[in-house]
Structures are given as structure tokens and as C-alpha cells.
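Subject: Interface between my chains keeps coming out wrong

I've been trying for a while to get a sensible model of this assembly. When I model each chain on its own everything looks fine, but I need the whole thing in one frame so I can look at the contacts. Pasting all components below, labels as-is. Any help appreciated, I'm running out of ideas.
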Amino acid sequence: MTDSSITMRTSADIPASGAAGLAGVAAKEAVAAKPGGKGGGRRVRSFTADVSAVGEPALWAFGGALALGIILIAGFLFMIFYNGMVTFWPKPIEVVTMRDGAVVAGEPTRSGTYRPGDNVLARMTEEQRDFVEENGGFSTRTLYRTANFDLYGDDFRWVSDFEVADVQQPTDFYFFERQEWGPFVGRVAGLVIDDAAIAYDSAIMQREQRAARARFAAIRGIEQGEIGRINYRLEQERLSIRRAQLRHGSGSAEALATAEAANARIAELNAEFAAQQQRVADIRTIDRRNRVILEEIGGRTKDTELSQIVRYYPANELSILDKIGIYFSRWGEFLTTEPREANTQGGVLPAIFGTVAMTLIMVVVVAPFGVVTALYLREYARQGRLVSIVRISVNNLAGVPSIVYGVFGLGFFAYTMGASIDQLFYPERLPSPTFGTGGILWASLTLALLTVPVVIVASEEALASVPRSMREGSLACGASKWQTIRYVVLPKAMPGIMTGLILAMARGAGEVAPLMLVGVVKLAPALPVDGFFPYIHLERSFMHLGFHIFDVGFQSRNSEAGKPMVFVTTLLLLALIVIMNSTAIYVRNRLKRKYASGQF
Amino acid sequence: MTEASAPDGGSETGEKVAARRTARAHERSKETRASVIYGESVAKWLITGGGLLVIFAVIGIMVFLVQVVVPLFFAGELRGRVVHDLGQPKEVAWINADEFQSLATSVSADGTVTTFHVGSGRLLASESLDFGGETATAVNGVLTRDRVAFGFEDGSVRFGRVGFDVTSVPRARAPTDLEQLNARDFLSGGAIFAQVQTGDYRRVAPVYEIGEAIAVSEAPIIAIDYRLGGTVERPTSAFVTVDAAGVARVSRSTIQRNLMTGQETVRTTTATLPALPSGTEVTSALMSAAADRVMIGTAEGLVYRYDIRDANNPVLAERRRVFDGDVAVTSLAYLNAELALVAGGSDGSVEVFFRLQRPGLDTADGFELVRARTHENQGAAVVGIGVAQRDKTFVTLDDAGGVWVRHSTSDQTLFKLERDGDPSIPGQVMLFPRTDGVLLVDDAGRAEAWAYDTPHPEVTLGVLFSRVWYEGYDSPGFTWQSTSGTDVFEPKYSLVPLIFGTLKATFYAMLFGVPIALMAAIYTSEFVHRRVRATVKPVMEMMESLPTVVLGFLAALVLAPLVEEWIAAVLLVFIALPMGLMIGAHLWQMLPLRTALRLGGIPKFLFMGAVILLSGLFSYQVGPAFEDLLFYGDFKQWTTGRIGTGTPFLFLIGLPLSFLLVSWAFSRRYGHHYRERLRALEKQSAGRLDFLRWIAMLAAAMLVSYVFASALTLIGYDPRGNVIDSYQQRNALVVGFVMAFAVIPNIYTLAEDALNSVPAHLRAGSLASGATPWQTAMWVILPTAASGVFSAVMIGMGRAVGETMIVVMAAGNTPIMEWNVFSGLRTLSANIAIELPEAVKDGTNYRTLFLAALTLFLMTFVINTVAELIRQRFRKRAFQL
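Reply #2:
Try treating it as a single job with all components included. I did that and got this:
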């Protein structure tokens, strides 16, 4: 990829394989087919083209390698795509009765064949052992998502086929998605509306659940809007006191005056804060009066506030339209809400936002740097040792492991530059760092360094593809070199440069390792952009789709519970990158065609 | 890429302007505007500067990393030194100082306590402890030095406390009569005050206490050691005493505090240790904190180790000569954590011993003292050892006035200090609690203190890159373990296991990746239709920017469990796949010419794909049978070495080699005849013959391989325990495979570019001369593009070396050094990603991790620079052809 300019120039047609490959054999056969000795005729020259010269086994090895690569890639993409797409499709709930009388209810997640070990076989009944033996020592097992983590202490359970006595899909089983504790699988035992217990009625439940969710949203709104604003202003007032103390010395008249004024405002804000808290508390009181009683398969009940139920559906009674509705509503939730349950449920909006914001800032930095270097290499530098060194440097920048950039970013950007910025501009917040720790700006700069070679190579290619005649025309009209570049070369090369930028974005969006060191977090308290001055907060840590995958897959309480989320996030990230890449390749191909016969 | 730079527009315009001006002077000015000329030069400088910025970026990264790493290797520097005359020439029994180097206390043998300010030498108080008129003949204390046991001339023992009380005083309540002692400290009411960052004051005041006498012996005590245990309510103290008669005793005292009266009752039980040989001159005694071991050092150069786990029945576990030759043990001390024993000898030797359990020992408890580290010889008898409370530093005092500060782990002498006073006057030496200075008080009443900075005493080049014998380990080794739960932990900073892990991961990745990538690149460039290439290439390019976090997630959560469950099938794939392709190729050779020609393009490629899928399916189906046949039904059991022999595995490994050997022998012996014979045949029958030859050769190779494997097994070689060992779910096989998946697109694209840029006329010439495409590819294209292909492999390797997310997620992250395919590993990059977020800025671990980054940087720098140089040469040559 770093050097496809060569490819471009020498894309002379290469003979198609197979036909030419057998040409030799054909020639030989043609010779052999000639009637042999016609008396003292000329001797027929023998061609040394035989089976071993065609190298069929080697060709198959080579072709096999390519096919293997393609199969692996296709399999990989298909797997991500399939798993990502089916995750949100509502599955039925099966109630499995075991041979020992135990009952399990859950969504069948996946199944596989395995060979029960000796210790498992030893624990089986005679009947079960026969069953397994009939299958050649193998058994099929299904992973059920039993949910109800708060009751069972686990989300999943494997059930082997030799244990199963009966499987049913009862219609009164519901799948509840809860705000906390993950999903619940079970029946509805009853409703409590306004502290009065009533029998379950689906219409009432539906109505009340909607109302409860609206209340939940209202609380969220107050907490994030009003209370967030008050907290922010409180913090500002405290900082202003500290700033005055630092500037004028503690105990000085100015500092005391500032402190007095700020304290007055703080008291005001605290009163306002209490008022908002009261509003929240009032809504909470109503919330607590509206509950639903859930009952799991074993008969244990769980009294839950209705506002905690994000979504519920009778899994075995759904029509196809219902299923589609649930499917898209889940996608909607995924794309537009914040995560819950330690990131294993809910949405990834902050991660999408963080990824996009970081990539955009990165592009702003990387674009001028990359283009200028490309201009230097292509338009200004004289070929020689210096250019060779620059090229080596570019390749080294491209080849240095990304984690090293992370180390550099942490040590240089955050700890060195950031600490100096803190000393100069944010002394009142010390010792807690503002820029002196990882943040979105440092992450963007680090990734800019990482992706600059991509931009350089692509821009160089684009500049090279601008026909010489255009440059010469411009110069002949009296334009200066810079004018030529500015008004003729750069506009023509712009699509190619854009290609480079898009490729850089694709590369940057997928990189995780350096971000782990320079500011990505599993749960960011605030987005880098909000309604408070200066609106864009470059020092804030952020969430990232790639890190989200790592975090949910490896650091959540149950990686199995997080897996569906990981697949969906992966699909999203991959889609993002594939779209960016395809755009870049499309633009590049168009560019190539446009200048293929670069004559006027 | 060479393109002449555009002609210089500026001067040309100037000439034209001059020419035209004479012609039509009345027209508008043709003068180049100043802004254009100005802009031109600004653009030139900016762009040149910007272009060169890339070089600065690379150099800048390297310089920055180096600059962070370098302080790691500074031994440290002395910050200052003070000498005070305390004016009380008395025999010093015990000294202690607080962690801020503000106060020091010296206790003399008659009980006089002198407390002075370290910085200025100002005496604070001079009191007396109640020694009951006796003179202390032996003193020793716990590691923190504030709990002390005094042994007296009359054979009694008293416990005391010589410590400091540190409190924080708000600024508003600080005393008003502060008297400045030095830049930091103030004196008021017998305590030192110092302002801390928040503006409040820290108050440091001395605390002393002395307990009741406990009669232990009749003779004067000559050596003592003391450890504290038990709970706060019921503290237990254990101590060992040796009296002048040569009797060693172990005693345990339990202090019971009556809650009502506040009165303390001390109950002491004493047991006598097995007697030392008569005439033994005991120089020192030591006891462990758990009160289970006692060490006694003698002037005869022996150390007696007692096992006192059974308090009523102590046994002599071991008697060991410590130094080579007739050298007396003059001092003994435990380093913190009490796993290492430091012994100082009369000839200046300083050695560190570990107590290790070894099979077949004849000592009473199965342990043995092993000399693990020999420190630099001090040249004169070591008379005092002071041990650091928080790390493995210690200070040794000799009788020629040398005060050497050493670090045990890194085996280096940090400072060689010289006493100011008369070296023959005995004194006491200690390290300040933060290990940032040395305090020495001698019997002439002279106090000396040195302050120093040693930010990273535990790291040297030797520690990082060679074997170090760590406390509690059986033998020297390469170990990485930078943090632990306890304070008394010895950090282990060997980069070798990490570098090893990096190389191992890279090796397995390249093992899988390079053949597939290169073969695929050759096939794409030489044997497929242009249109196929136009689709495959961009897809591969897109795979290059695939986030590796996705691959890591798949490797760890999907692939690793799958491979674990189907390990036999996975192993079978490695055989079935090439076999399947070879069978496919030979069957293809048997096709009639016309059919072969007609199906030559994309259908043939599809057949290849089908063969691969079939091989996979075959492996899946036959895997269990394969496991039964070769690995006794359980591969994982087999790898541990518990069942079966190594023959089946050696057979499999030997198969490709044997095949090469057999085919080499065949072509050597019959190659010419065989080819002659093939030529004489029709294509189809030639194909059949070739197939038979292949089958025969395969059978021969199997035989050879089996004989070879059996022979190796007979002579006792077993690959298990070496390349094959017990199976872990997250292992090098999975990591290698997935990392190969990550580097294949990289190598493929670059190699394909290199192959493709071989000038078309070479290809045409070769084909026109009658060579088959296969011959052209192998003997014309590949040699020409070899350097470009090589540089592609190098760049791929650079990427594998630095790959982070896949290894973090799928490699298990155990820093072990074994080539076992089925065990985990920890690479430099994974180590950085895991530990750097928690490392304290500018701490040892932080700098060591930067060194790891620098190592990675240099590894890839070398690889990439070489690759780029080769590529530049190749490019030049390719255009010359």
C-alpha cells in the first residue's frame, strides 16, 4: 500500500495464467502430433516442456494460499457480520426440563458438539451414558441465557442433550430488559400500581411501563441538565476562589473579596441544587409506588420498579412484525443511548461520539503535516541522500509499533507538554491534572503522528498523478511555482489527498493500543463537547469503540454476557472502517481512471 | 519516481518582463508583484521545513524515549553531608532517625539518650533510660529500628522503644516560638516543625520508653536479636540471646495488659538452644520475624542455623562455613522480607545467602543456606550492617572507616563513603527509613550523616539483561515481575522474558504468515486474471487497516476455546491442507488438455478453494480418529508427557523434511531419466505416472520419518517438555495464527507490488523463449523482485514485533521463557499496555517500561530502515532493467 505508485505505472497487462501455463504443453503436443520421420527430413526440435515444467503442484500451493487467505477473510467478515446482525433479533424462551427434574428457562444462545470427559461420564446415569455412546462419544450442548443474574449469580448455563427430558416454549414467559442486573426471564406474577396490588393485565402494564420510562427519562434529564449545570458552576466558583488565592496570595484583600462573592453564589447554587434534588426525589417516590412482580421459573419472585424495565416482550408469542419492531428498537437503543450494566447493555453513543471526535481532530492535525511533506518530496526536494533519509523516516513512522506512539504520547504530550500547560493556565486545579493526563487532544495528536505516513504516501501518489503537461502549462502562462501548486496541482490532486485522509481516518479509528495509554476510559463521565464554555473540552478523557470491545470482552464480570455487545460493537466499528476504506478506494480508482491518459 | 523538478518559474518570468517592458512600456506593469515573490519563498521554506519535520519526528521520539530511560542507569548522587560533634563521648548502643531526616536519636550503653537535629546538629534533649545501673552489652532491634532489645552485663534483657512521633499541625495552630534551624526545619518545645506543601506543619518529636528487666542468664549477654509479633492487644516478643558462657537461648514474652488497671504483666518462657561447641566466639545473632529461625555467626567463620518452629525443642538445622578460607563472621543481618541473609566477614567480604529447599539434603529441615550473591569486597573487616526498611539496599561499615552503600538485587555498590572521624573508634551505622541517607554515630560522640538520591538502585544493565538470582528462587534466572501486593517485595526487572515473548510471537506469526502471504502474492501477480487481481488487491489492502482489537477479541473469545476443543482437528489441518492441494494438483495433471485449458482460469481457482474447504471438513470429521491414532485419544494429556511417547509428534514434524529429503534424493538419482520418460508420454498418462511417483515418494517419506522418529525416541529424546508442553487455552499457536492473519495483508500487498513492478518485457521475453509461466515466475520474476519481496517480509515482521492488542487479549500474558507452542507469552508491547497506565511517573517501573518501548522502537527501526534501504535499491534496479 505504501508504494502503489509503482503498481500504477507498470500496470501493463500480465498474461492470463492458465492458458499460457499450458501453452508449453500444447506446443509439445503439437510437435509430437506431427507425423514422425518423413525420411531424411529436418529433425524436429524437442521442446523441454513437460508436466514438471508446468509446476502444477506448486501452482496449487500458491493458489491454495491465496484461496486460503480469501476464505479466512471472508469467513472472518461473515462471522462478524452474522453475529453482529443476529444479536438483537429476539429469540424464543425455552423451558427445559431435565431428567433429574430440574427446570431451566432461557434463550438458547448457541450450541456445539463436544466430547464429555471421563469425570463427566462417571457422573452420568446408565441411560445417559448409552445415549452418549450412541453418538460416538459425543454430545451436543446448548448454552442457555438464563438471565436473572441477581437471583442465580450467573447469566448462562450449558445444557447437554443427554440431560434433557423435555423442551417447551410456554407463551406466558417474558423477556425483560432491566436498567440494572441485566435481563430477566420469567413470568409476571402481578402488578403494583399506586401501591395497590392488581392482577397482571398487559394493557395496564404497557401503559404504566411507558409512563415509568418517561419518569425515568425525566430524572435523567434533571440530573444531567439542571444538576449537571449547577455542579459545573459550583466547581467554577471553587476554582475562582483558588485562582484568586494563587494570584493575589491567600489572605490578601482581593482573594478575600473573591471568596466572599463566590461563597455567596455557592450558597445560592446549593439552594438551587437542593430544590432540584427535591424534584428528583418526588419523581422517585412515584416510581417506587409502581412496581411489577416478576417470577422466575423456579418460583422465586422479584419486586421491581416499573421504571427499571427498559423493554419487555412475550418471547414466544411474537409475530414477525413484533420481532422486527424489537430488533430495530434495540438497534436504535444501541446507537443512541449510553451504556448500562458495566457497558454490557444499552448503547454506545458516547463511544461513537468519542471515536468520531478523536478522528476528526486527528485529521485536522494530520492533513497539513502530511500534505506539506508530500509536497516537499514531490515538488521541492532534489532527489538525493536527504530525500532518501526523509523516505526512511516516513517508513519508520509507518513501521514503529503503535504502542510506542502511546508511550511517547503519554510521556511527552501528557506528562511533559500537558504538565507545562497546567502550570501556566490551570494552576488553580493542581495537583489534579487538567491537560497533564490523558485526554482527547493528546490521543488525537498521538494518532496523528501514527497516521501521517498514510497521508504522505497517498498525497505523494496524488501529486505524482497530476500530469506534467498541466504544470508546464501553468508555468508557461507565467504562474510562479507556488501559484502552480496552489491553483493547478493541489486542486487536481485533492481527491487523492482526500483518499489519504480517509485512509488515515480508517487507520486511526481502529487503533486501540496507544489510546489505552493516552486517555481512553471505559466510562467517560462527560462528553468532550457540551454546553459549557468553551464547549469543546480537549482535555477530557473519552470512550472509544475499539476500547469498548476490549473492555466489554475482557474486563466485564462475565465475558459471555458481554459477547453479543462485543459483536455488535465490532460490526459497527468494522462497518465504519470498511465504509471509509471503500470510499477511499473508490475515489482513488476514479482518480486513476481520470488521469489514466493524462493528456489534454 | 524520478521526475525532474519543474523549471524555476521565477527567473523566467523576470526575463520576460524585462523583454516586454522595452517593447510596450505604456501597458500595465509586468513586474512580478512583491507578494508573489515573497509568497514563493515563504512557501518554499515552509514546505521544506515541513518535509524535514518527519525526520525530526522520528529523531524526536527516539531522543525523548532515551531521555526518559537514561536516569535508570545513574547510580545516584550525594546531596550533602554533615558532621556534628555531640559532645558526649560514650559507647553508642543504638541509633535511630525519622524518615524525614529531621531527628536522630543515639542511645549509649549506660542508657543516656541523645536526640539531635540531623541538619544542624542542634541537641534537643538529653535524657536517661532506666537501665537499673547496668551497662548494655548487646543491642538489637526490629527492622523499623523503633523497638529495641537491650542485653545487659548481669544477664538480663529489657525492651525499649526509641522512636519518633510524627503528627500534622494545622498552620493556624502552629507554635509561635518557632526557631529556624535550617531552610526546612524549625524548633519548638523539643520537637521539629517543618512546613509541608499544603501549608500545614509536620511535627516530629522523639519518643522513648524502657521496660522492666527480664532475667535470662547469669552471664553477660553478648548477642541479642528481637522480633515483634502477636496482636496489638497481646503483643508477643520473641528474642534470642547468647551469653558470655556461650549459651544461646530463645525466649518468648507475652505482654498482657489489664484493661481495668492498665497494668502490664510480662510472661516469659525460655528455651536453650542446642549447645555450641565450647570455645566458640559468637559475634552476632539473628532471629526471623515469624520466630522460627535463629542464626548465630561466630568468629570461626561459621553460621549456625537453628530451627525453632517447635519452641520447646529447638534443633540445629545446619552449620555452614560462610566465607572461603578462615574468615570470621563479623556481622549478620536480614534484608527486609527476611529471605536474604547478609554476612560481613573480617576480610571485608560481603555475601548474601538464601535459605532454599533442595531435594536430598541432609540438613534437619531440608533447607540449606546457599550463597547467592557475592558483593564487592570492602577491604577491611565489616563491623556493622544497616538494612533499608523499604527496599533491598544496605550499608556496611568497616573498621578502616569505609561506609559503603550497596544494593543487593542489582549487586552494585552505590556509594563508597569515608568516615570523617577516627576509623578505629567503633560506631553504629543505619540507613534513613526512606533509604535516602546514611547516619553514623561513633563512640567519640561524633555524628555523621550523608544524604543521597538513588532513584533507581535496583536496575542496572545486568539486572535488565542477564540472569539474576532473586530471593526465594532456586537458581538465577530471567524474571519479570515489577509489582506485587507486599511492600517487602523484590521487584524483578528482566527484559529478557519480554523480548523472548516478542520474538516467539513474531516467530510463530511469521511461520504461518510468510508462506501464505508470499505464495498468494506470487499467484496474484503471475497467475490470475487482471480482473481477479483488481478485486483481491483492494480487499487485502482494506484488511490492512482492520482493527487488531477485533482480531484479538476473536482470537481470545472465539478461536482459543474452539482450538482447545478441537486441537486434534486443528493439528490435522496442517497436514490435510497441503495434502489436499497436492492431490488436487495431481488430479488436475491427469485432466485432458482441453478440459484443463477450458477450466484454467477462475474455475481452477474455485476448485482450489473447494479443496481447502474439503480439507477443513475432512479434518473436522477425522480429527478425533486422528487423536486416537497418534495421541492415545487425548492430546492434552499427551502433551504433559504422562501418556505415550514423543514418536507420533516427531513423525509429523519430520514428514515435510523427509519428503524434501526423499524428493531431493529422487531427483538427484533418477530426476533426469524420469523427466525424459515423462516427456515421452501423453499428458494424461504423464499425469498418472507423476501421481504414482508422488504417492510412492510420500510413502517413502512417511517411512523415513517414522524410522527417524522411532530412533530419536529410542535414544531418549522427547519433544515434550521443550517445544511441546502442557496446553494452555491462550497460547502461542492461537496468537501466531491470528497475528499471521494481521500481517498477511501487509506482506501480501508489498510483495505483490514488488513482483508487479518487475518490467513487463522481462516476463514477455521469458515466455517468448518458451518458458512456462511457472518457470518464468520462479527463475525470472522472483529473482528480480527478491529484494522487494524480502523488504515486504521485513516490514511484516516489524508489524508483528509491535503488535499489541492481539497479544494483550490472546496470549495469556505470562512472562515465561519456553518455546512451547501451547503456552502463553508476554511481549514487550503487551507489557507496556498492561503496566504503563498504572506506573508512577518517573518511577523505576515507568522508566523500565520506556526502555521496553525504546527496545521495540529500535527493533522496528532497524528492521524498517534495512527494509527501506533494500527497497530503494530494488526500485532503482527494477527501473534500470
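Reply #3:
Confirming on my end. The two ends of chain B are 15 Å apart (CA to CA).
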